[in-house]
Amino acid sequence: MSEMREAALNSKAWPFEEARRVLKRYAGKAPKKGFVLFETGYGPSGLPHIGTFGEVARTTMVKRAFEEISDIPTKLVCFSDDLDGLRKVPGNVPNPERLEQHLQRPLTSVPDPFGKYESFGHHNNAMLRRFLDTFGFEYEFISAKAFYESGQFDEILKRAVEKYDDIMAVMLKSLREERAATYSIFLPIHPESGRVMYVPMKSVNAQDYTITFDTEDGEEMTLPVTGGNVKLQWKPDFGARWAALDVDFEMYGKEHATNTAIYDRICEILGGKKPDHFSYELFLDENGQKISKSSGNGISIDQWLTYASTESLSYFMYLKPKTAKRMHFDVIPKAVDEYHQQLRAYVDQDAKARANNPVWHIHGGEVPASDMVVPFSMLLNLASVSSAQDKSQLWGFIQRYAPDASPETHPGMDAAAGHAVAYFNDFVKPTKVFRAPSDLERNALEELRDTLTSWDGGLDAEVLQSMVFAVGKERFDPLRAWFTALYEVLLGASQGPRFGGFIALYGVDETVQLIDDALAGKLLAA
Fold first, then answer.
1. What pLDDT was estimated at residue 448?
2. Lowest mean pLDDT among 80-84, 274-278, 293-297, 365-369
3. 1 vs 185: which has the higher pLDDT
4. Taking a C-beta distance cutoff of 8 angstroms, is the pair 446, 475 a contact?
5. Which is nearest to 236 in space by CA: 182, 177, 187?
6. How many CA atoms lie within 13 A of 3 on its CB side?
7. Mean pLDDT, to the nearest integer, of 165-172?
8. How far is CA 293 from the centre of its chain?
């Protein structure tokens, strides 16, 4: 047994814990289908949001962990419930009035408001696949429309007819009396209007696998359950899909947790083995509200990638999946820097530590080296003091600190510089607020300036930090008040970098000029 596999089998990292549970399903032997199936589900009622990405990213982490502890082949399926009816018009699409007349029609029958694809469902599926491909996920995409209409779901649908009373008994226990009176696990699709109908069944016939019902207009109609003529209600659909695909693992948000027993029981009634599942906490926007596809609140995947790398987003997804996290723009700099801290730590770690390092799970063991010679948070401060409009402006500072670095030799650093300029101009610049120094702060700043003016100690960040520390120690108690003053007076922010490192990057002469500008009131005036 390899050292890494042994470490993985004992690791407390959550993907390895989940992978070990999946491995126990088959006592280390491959299932009849020849592979272990991991699944994620997606409802394309709106543009895919970052929570959708998180589900695929986290499931991929469990899949990678499983592959480390077992030689059984694996597969990841991304299933889109694009046969679901459009319940409401999303608030974040163009031409919303075009969708009003298509309410209750399957998403793959609703016109694309963006005018690019065959339908709204096809558009959102394409967006999802584009996002997943950007991150290099290995997956098989399955459309519910194709799954129902091709006959792949027919055997399970027939079994649902045969077990109709048993499945209804499970469902009715969970429904209010008024809802239970008209509920059916089957949703017929009207052959003329194309609308998904929420109507009670008059009869369910196991002889010819048909259902009979009255349409919303009062017309009696009989349809076969096969061939895409009906779809299942979403809760039965969950369990039926598990049975049809023989799913071994699926994770979902905590809003599904109370329904897990229902999904499991329906899967078993239909002859399947319930999968292992993992319930994660939801993502919240800046106001603490749940992120929603239809409202488009929170940060999108494209927006994150405007300001940071794909790997930093995967790192954020790895952290504490059982904890609700606010998903807004101000989490990005911290995620970037922590990701690179973990990359640097990985180099010298043993197998046990590597198994617990998030970057192993992000990269599946093929962990790259970090080329971030300057932290992202520091790049933001450099962009701030230089009012950078282009990443080339930052490279002048970067190469002073790391002469051997260049955009060609450090592509990650180069991308981060571009991200930092974009982030600064969109989020930092509009919120910068400078203030004038107090008399005590002015006196300390003058001493710092004078010390730097005659400085001959080089650009060692730690030596410079000690010097800054010494200037403040004589005057400020607590000392953090000195650094707060540096940030607020010189950078226009309430928090900032280790100031010795900032001087080493920005330059001694440039820092002297920055202090002079602040003392003269030029920063405050600007």
1. 96
2. 293-297
3. 185
4. no
5. 187
6. 6
7. 96
8. 13
Other residues' Cβ atoms within 10 Å of the Cβ of residue 182:
11
Chain centroid to CA 516: 44
The answer to whether 255 and 232 have CB atoms below 8 angstroms apart is no
Shortest CA distance to 69 belongs to which of 10, 136, 13, 25?
A: 10
CA dihedral 315→316→320→323, nearest 10 degrees, is -170
Buried b (16+ CB within 10 A) or exposed e, 210-243: bbebeeeeeeebebbbbebbbbbbebbbbbbbbb
Contact between 312 and 335 (Cβ < 8 Å): yes
Mind listing the pLDDT tens digit for each residue in 434-451? 999 999 999 999 999 999
- Burial group, residue 258, by CB count within 10 angstroms (0-12, 13-18, 19+): exposed
Mean pLDDT of 453-475: 92
Percent of the chain's residues with pLDDT above 70: 97
Q: State whether residue 497 is helix, strand or coil.
A: coil
pLDDT level of residue 97 (50, 70, 90 thresholds): confident
Of 474, 487, 388, the C-alpha closest to 434 is 487
Residue with tokens 């995409």: 141
What confidence score (pLDDT) does residue 301 get? 79
Predicted confidence at residue 73, as pLDDT, reads 96
- The whole-model pTM stands at 0.89
Structure tokens given for 353: 């530590």
DSSP line for 259-289 = GHHHHHHHHHHTT--PPEEEEEPPEE-TTSP
